[in-house]
Amino acid sequence: MNQYEKTEIVARCVAHLAWQAWLPVREVAACIGPERMAELMDFAPCREFMSIDEMAWEINRGCWLGYELDKDAPLPPEDFGEKTVQRMEDDGMDLYTALVKA
Question: Are 79 and 6 in contact (CB under 8 A)?
Fold first, then answer.
């Protein structure tokens, strides 16, 4: 799995978590912080055996966010991760900055 794929997966997971918590993506990303965001890149390969939903729940638990998640909440667009990565490349940002400015 390359860096682009990992970044896309982490962006989708953070967006998924935010939408299920009924919060803005930038707020959830700010709570995760830049160091933990970088650590999540190592978690991205779990996508091979976990759904985005499961990964979002694990991030919520693993980062001690404690958000109450609504499984019936609408989900972010499928291309959220791809668009985030494209914005990162266009503007020269890291993932944390791109999500905080989402």
Answer: no
